[in-house]
C-alpha cells in the first residue's frame, strides 16, 4: 500500500486525499509536522512541505502538483469518463490553471494564513514561530476569502463544475482549501450562493467523508463543518 505523508489540516494534503478517494485508491496516512523539519522527512522532500506520496515500489512523489500528475499518469485512464484531468488539451490547461489558482493564490492569500495562525502556531516552538495568532493576518485572510468565493461563483455561472461540466482536480483543490477554512469557521458562505451549493455537492461525495472526521487536539471544528445541509 502507498503511504501519504500529510498533515490533517494541510490543504494540499487534503487535496491529494480527495484525489485518492475519487480514484478508489487507499493509502496509509502518516502525520507530519513539517515545521519540525525532521531529517527523515527532509530526505523524502528537501522542500520540507507536505504532502509526499510514497508508492508501493517506494517511489517518492513530493508536492501536490507532481502527485496529481503522477496519479493521472498511473490511474487516470482507468477512470474513463471520471478522469480528473480531461483528455482534451484545452480542458487540461484550464484544470492546471485553476490548480495554480487554488494551490498557489488561494493558499498564499487565505488558507496558509489561517491554518498557520490558528492551528500550526499552537504546536510550534517559539523559536520556530509559534505563539499567539496574528489577528491582522487573520483579518486579511478573512477579507481575501470573500473575493475567492465570488470568483468560484463566477466560474459556476458558466459551468456545472469549476473547470467544466465534470468533476476535476480543480474542484478537489478548491474544496480542500475551503474545507480547512470551513473547519475554522471562517468561510462567509452567505457571500455567494452558487459557491455554497457547489461546495455542498463536493462535500457530500464519499471521498470527503474522511476529511469531515478529522480533528485537531484542543480545537473542535466549527458547528457546520460536518453538516452536509449547512
Structure, explained:
With 230 residues, the protein is α+β, with helices and mostly antiparallel strands. It has two domains: 2-82, Glutaredoxin (3-Layer(aba) Sandwich), CATH 3.40.30; 89-206, Glutathione S-transferase Yfyf (Class Pi), Chain A, domain 2 (Up-down Bundle). 51% of the residues lie in helices and 7% in strands. It has eight helices and four strands; from the N terminus they run βαβαββαααααα. The protein has helices at 11-22, 39-44, 64-76, 89-123, 135-156, 169-183, 193-203, 209-212; strands at 2-6, 27-31, 52-54, 60-62. It has a four-stranded mixed beta sheet. Residues 88-225 form the GST C-terminal domain.
What are the salient characteristics of this protein?
single chain; 230 residues; alpha+beta; Glutathione S-transferase Yfyf (Class Pi), Chain A, domain 2; 8 helices; globular; Thioredoxin-like_sf; glutathione transferase activity
Amino acid at each position: 500500500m502507498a503511504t501519504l505523508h500529510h498533515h490533517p489540516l494541510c490543504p494540499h494534503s487534503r487535496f491529494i486525499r480527495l484525489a485518492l478517494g475519487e480514484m478508489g485508491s487507499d493509502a496509509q496516512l502518516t502525520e507530519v509536522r513539517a515545521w519540525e523539519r525532521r531529517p527523515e522527512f527532509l530526505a523524502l522532500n528537501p522542500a520540507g512541505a507536505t504532502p509526499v506520496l510514497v508508492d508501493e515500489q517506494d517511489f517518492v512523489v513530493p508536492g501536490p502538483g507532481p502527485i496529481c500528475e503522477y496519479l493521472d499518469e498511473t490511474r487516470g485512464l482507468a477512470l474513463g469518463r471520471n478522469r480528473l484531468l480531461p483528455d482534451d488539451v484545452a480542458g487540461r490547461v484550464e484544470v492546471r490553471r485553476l490548480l495554480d489558482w487554488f494551490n498557489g493564490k488561494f493558499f498564499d492569500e487565505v488558507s496558509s494564513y489561517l491554518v498557520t495562525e490558528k492551528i500550526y502556531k499552537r504546536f510550534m516552538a517559539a523559536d520556530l514561530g509559534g505563539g499567539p495568532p496574528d489577528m491582522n493576518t487573520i483579518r486579511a485572510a478573512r477579507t481575501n476569502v470573500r473575493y475567492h468565493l465570488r470568483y468560484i461563483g463566477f466560474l459556476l455561472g458558466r459551468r456545472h463544475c469549476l473547470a467544466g461540466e465534470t468533476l476535476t482536480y480543480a474542484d478537489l483543490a478548491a474544496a480542500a482549501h475551503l474545507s480547512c477554512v470551513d473547519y475554522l469557521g471562517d468561510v462567509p458562505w452567505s457571500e455567494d450562493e452558487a459557491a455554497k451549493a457547489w461546495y455542498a455537492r463536493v462535500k457530500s461525495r464519499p471521498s470527503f467523508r474522511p476529511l469531515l472526521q478529522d480533528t485537531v487536539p484542543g480545537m473542535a471544528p466549527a458547528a457546520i463543518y460536518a453538516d452536509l445541509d449547512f
